[in-house]
Amino acid sequence: MAGITLQNIVKKYGDGFPAVNDVSLDIADGEFVILVGPSGCGKSTLLRMVVGLEDITDGDLTIGGKRVNDKAPRDRNLAMVFQNYALYPHLSVFENIAFPLRLAKGKHSDAEVTKRVNEAADLLELREHLERKPANLSGGQRQRVAMGRAIVRQADAFLFDEPLSNLDAKLRGQMRTEIARMQRRLGTTTIYVTHDQTEAMTLGDRVAVLRKGELQQVASPRELYEEPVNLFVAGFIGSPPMNFLPAQLEGTTLTLPFGSVEITPEVAERARGAEFLIAGLRPEHVEDASVLEGSRAERGTTFEVDVDVTEWLGNELYAYVPFTPDERVAAKLAELDKELDGESMRHQMVVTLDARSRVRDGDRAR
Ligand code: ATP
């Protein structure tokens, strides 16, 4: 196993805008890192450079302390799992998993191949499917075969490129848990590309957020959510997204389009001296006053507003509140409020801006 270090990595296709621009990232041995960002931000390009499918225009890539920029993919000892799994339809599950071992001709005896394939199949609960062809497997089983192939190679690291995006929501959930469990059990360094928020927030030790080829923030899921370094990360992580409102600060009084809210001195301190301010309000910080009790209600500031649309998702209820004529603010409500179902009504909402809420200036990257 090995750590992977990217140092000032650049990728240019032709002479256009760099697809990956000066990315530096240190991935520890055994760490699980997620690359996330909108379509076209350079996630796949970055992964393909690590595995060796794409040349690196500039910068250094080291695996296990050795520079590998000029090494062929087969000499990097990495295992990649693709979105379409890349299984061979004419080969059985056993032979699909065994494939990388067969490729290394003469290196592994038949007994060794059988032993390794069986071990991987046990781990992935594929033992009873070994004789089947991929066409006769479900999407999730195919996914596991692709992972089996990565496991038998005993690679230094696993690289996943949106491996779950072809699966339905239920299976995606199951496979997500399985990948997390397997990675923990094997302790193999893993880089995982996705544009799925849930995968990004639940799978990795750290998440690297990319935008237009540039790294915005690398942090634990919790830190990304609670301490985003700029507006892009704040708006990208979280669903429904954070509400952004223009704000002005005087002392500890923050004036928003719909009124004033008291904030803590610590939060106020962070925003001091900024030229212009945008307040970021998570939907869970706007709540229905009528069902809030105790300290949370006391900490907040209450406003009377119209609720014009609600969305009930079974376990969550969101209301969209036109706090200003052209801005709707998403509010996460308690289940008790189910009767607020789409009818326009005046309602008391509480806005809580506590120490976790950030107030910062502009779109400044750290
Ligand atoms: P998605 O989530 O849509 O797969 P991504 O974040 O993985 O997107 P990349 O596929 O890495 O993005 O692409 C990054 C940028 O590089 C895009 O602007 C894309 O158009 C460009 N690009 C990717 N591959 C090539 C190529 N072979 N030739 C030229 N430009 C390319």
TrEMBL record:
A biological-process GO annotation: carbohydrate transport
Keyword Aminoacyl-tRNA synthetase: no
MF term (GO), any: ABC-type transporter activity
CDD domains for this protein: ABC_MalK_N
UniProt keyword list: ATP-binding, Cell membrane, Membrane, Nucleotide-binding, Translocase, Transport
Taxonomic superkingdom: Bacteria
InterPro entries: AAA+_ATPase, ABC_transporter-like_ATP-bd, ABC_transporter-like_CS, ABC_transpr_MalK-like, ABC_transpr_MalK/UgpC-like, Mo/tungstate-bd_C_term_dom, OB_MalK-like, P-loop_NTPase
GO CC entries: ATP-binding cassette (ABC) transporter complex, substrate-binding subunit-containing
Span of domain ABC transporter: 4-237
Gene3D superfamilies: 2.40.50.100, P-loop containing nucleotide triphosphate hydrolases
PANTHER family: MALTODEXTRIN IMPORT ATP-BINDING PROTEIN MSMX (PTHR43875), TREHALOSE IMPORT ATP-BINDING PROTEIN SUGC (PTHR43875:SF15)
Protein name: Carbohydrate ABC transporter ATP-binding protein (CUT1 family)
Species annotation: Pseudokineococcus lusitanus
